[in-house]
């Protein structure tokens, strides 16, 4: 099976390997291989590799000495990765501790292991964590070539939505004016700016906005990102009729902000509206709410209805891509 590898001469191999390791890009589950005078260094994210390096597909063998947590536990544990943090969701504290210890003793790359201690709660959508290994809940997450610094104890971030975010970002064209109404640390806003859009990101969480500014600088798009702390409803004077693209990723209560979205929308605007609804009618409530807010001033065209993921029994997290065209 081929995987992305950086191909370098053997004389440059150690320097390049060290540079990739410093950026947490090494695929430690695969062996570094020498062939025909070149060194093939497996990486976990080809798009995040600096442009000066040659990335190729190569059949790098799996490390024979790799020890997985399941081998130590006797069962396959469930966990998520967010940068160098491993996230568990275990109700049994003793089981969580066993898994954390196995992760430490395995070859899995992690500096911190946490267990969810609460649901997402409050106006800022954060949760509590039991830190089982390590001290810091701050990390750098890499996604489709972008880096996002964040503290999981202070901001909301879901790595599970990476594919959905990428789907939306791929639709963005250079020169657009985009506004993320609930921007967090910038997983929509920063890549949209990377596509050449002028982006405004707004969030109530002051810590998230600080990270948003840092992440814009980290990814070289600070000149195209305006980060604003506060309620997005306060932007209706300055940004009325301004926006070509709106992201509304607040699925439990986005409908409460539709009047604001319509005020912010320009002559033509694509709205990415996220919702959580019952499986019997996952898209109908969102579409009806959008039409009620936008018509008759705008023609409303639903371009995409997408189930993002299962949220709870019989409930889906969904997205509607909706085009608003002024009449």
Structural notes for this entry:
The protein has 327 residues and is an alpha/beta fold. It folds into 3 domains: 3-58, 2-Layer Sandwich (Alpha-Beta Plaits); 69-136, GMP Synthetase, Chain A, domain 3, CATH 3.30.300.110; 158-326, Rossmann fold (3-Layer(aba) Sandwich), CATH 3.40.50. It is 22% helix and 34% strand. The protein has helices at 13-22, 69-73, 93-105, 162-169, 189-194, 206-218, 258-264, 284-294; strands at 3-9, 33-35, 38-42, 54-58, 80-82, 85-88, 112-116, 129-133, 138-143, 146-151, 177-180, 198-203, 225-229, 243-248, 265-278, 298-312, 315-326. A 7-stranded mixed β-sheet has the order 13-12-11-14-15-17-16. A 4-stranded antiparallel β-sheet has the order 2-3-1-4, covered by helices on one side.
Short description:
The chain is of the alpha/beta class.
Descriptive labels:
327 residues, alpha/beta, Alpha-Beta Plaits, GMP Synthetase, Chain A, domain 3, Rossmann fold, 3 domains, four-stranded antiparallel beta sheet, 22% helix
């Amino acid at each position: 099976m081929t995987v992305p590898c950086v191909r370098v001469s053997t004389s440059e191999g150690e320097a390049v390997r060290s540079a990739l390791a410093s950026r947490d890009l090494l695929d430690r589950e695969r062996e570094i291989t020498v062939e025909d005078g070149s060194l093939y260094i497996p990486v976990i994210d080809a798009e995040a590799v600096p442009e000066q390096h040659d990335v190729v597909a190569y059949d790098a063998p799996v490390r024979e000495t790799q020890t997985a947590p399941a081998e130590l536990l006797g069962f396959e544990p469930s966990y998520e990765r967010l940068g160098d943090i491993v996230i568990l969701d275990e109700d049994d504290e003793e089981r969580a501790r066993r898994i954390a210890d196995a992760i430490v003793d395995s070859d899995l790359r992690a500096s911190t292991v946490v267990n969810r201690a609460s649901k997402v709660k409050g106006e800022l959508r954060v949760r509590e964590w039991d830190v089982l290994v390590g001290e810091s809940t701050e990390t750098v997450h890499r996604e489709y070539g972008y880096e996002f610094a964040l503290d999981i104890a202070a901001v909301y971030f879901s790595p599970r939505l990476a594919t959905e975010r990428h789907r939306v970002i791929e639709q963005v064209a250079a020169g657009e004016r985009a506004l993320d109404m609930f921007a967090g640390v910038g997983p929509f806003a920063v890549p949209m700016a990377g596509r050449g859009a002028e982006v405004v990101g707004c969030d109530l969480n002051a810590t998230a906005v600080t990270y948003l500014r840092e992440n814009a600088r980290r990814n070289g798009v600070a000149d195209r990102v305006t980060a604003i702390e506060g309620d997005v409803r306060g932007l209706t004077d300055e940004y009325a009729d301004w926006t070509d693209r709106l992201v509304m990723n607040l699925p439990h209560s986005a409908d409460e902000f539709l009047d604001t979205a319509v005020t912010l929308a320009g002559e033509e605007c694509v709205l990415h509206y996220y919702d959580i609804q019952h499986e019997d009618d996952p898209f109908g409530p969102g579409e009806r709410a959008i039409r009620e807010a936008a018509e008759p001033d705008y023609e409303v065209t639903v371009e995409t209805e997408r189930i993002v993921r299962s949220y709870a029994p019989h409930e889906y997290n969904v997205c509607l891509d909706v085009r608003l065209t002024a009449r």
